[in-house]
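SAMPLE LOG
Freezer: B-3
Tube label: C17
Construct: single chain, 373 aa
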Amino acid sequence: MKIGVVREIKTHEYRVALTPAGVEELTRDGHEVLVETGAGAGSGLSNQDYADAGARIVETVDGVWAEAEMVMKVKEPLEVEWSRMRPGQTLFTYFHLAADRKLTEAVIATGSHCFAYETLEVNKTLPLLEPMSEVAGRLAIQAGAKYLERPAGGTGILLGGVPGVRPAKVLVLGGGIVGTNAARMAAGLGADVVVLDVNIRRMQYLDEILPPNVTTLYNTRMTLREELAKADLTVGAVLIPGAAAPKLVLKSDLVDMKRGSVIVDVAIDQGGCFETAKATTHEDPTYVVEDVVHYCVANMPGAVPRTSTYALTNATLPWARRLAKMGPLLAASEDAGLASAASAIGGKLTCPAVAAAFDMDCVTPADAAIAAS
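STRUCTURE (predicted):
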């Protein structure tokens, strides 16, 4: 199979979908890997690094899309890329379709076979989402600390405080991978951390592994409002696999929050868990609503591409090898993990969570594969 790797074009997105080590593994499997010139530059990977690993460097992005049978990306295809997708071609990337109906309709219309990293499920885990969730959870605290500084519009509080001065209060909504990493990072800096969740077993686990300056609380609307009023930094870390994020924090809740407090909505890829959240970019990352600073960058891990690219490839490479070996139709029919990642096969929507978000028709990946064969 010819596998293409293209340069990401989302604003300040520096990750790349495959490292040279990944190229070497795929070429050893008998595949040909085409890499757009400069695709890895943002992650410190040169054309020569890829060529030495066995890739063929292609000078134009259109050349990669036209020749590749499977294209690997990091972020969802942007509008300029939709016309490059074609029937029968496989695209393996993050899609986050439930947050964008226009994108959903566009990728269905291409007739491509679309496999989403974020919905691939194995034993009730999301192995291709986890590494970027770990990065985003930790980055959320870095970003929050920065925007709590007074010149950035925050309250001017140091997360860890100093002797004789109280530390900042950090509220984390959700105790999954993002929330756990955010809580661990904030606690390590000395903040007073509260994690809200509704899963008792998960909270028992967090109590065991996190330090004493982290408290877990069962999430109710009353508890949420009380903790929001105390928080200097609130991190949105709620995930429903493949579906739009629930709006836990309403606009009316913001009036009770501290002036200059900061919200970091890591769930913004799935629409955000704050009613006032709207996607921002690394170029223009924040805005203010009701005197609360909102940081809602939709590709947070892109800010640390060297770490993110390697973490992502470590997770995706085994699945990319399986997908390339089986082909999209057999994978959608017979591989449970890859079938769970199938978002659209041959012009048919195959992800129930996305279908529910937009009230669209949906078929099983196996049925779509049969229709496309």
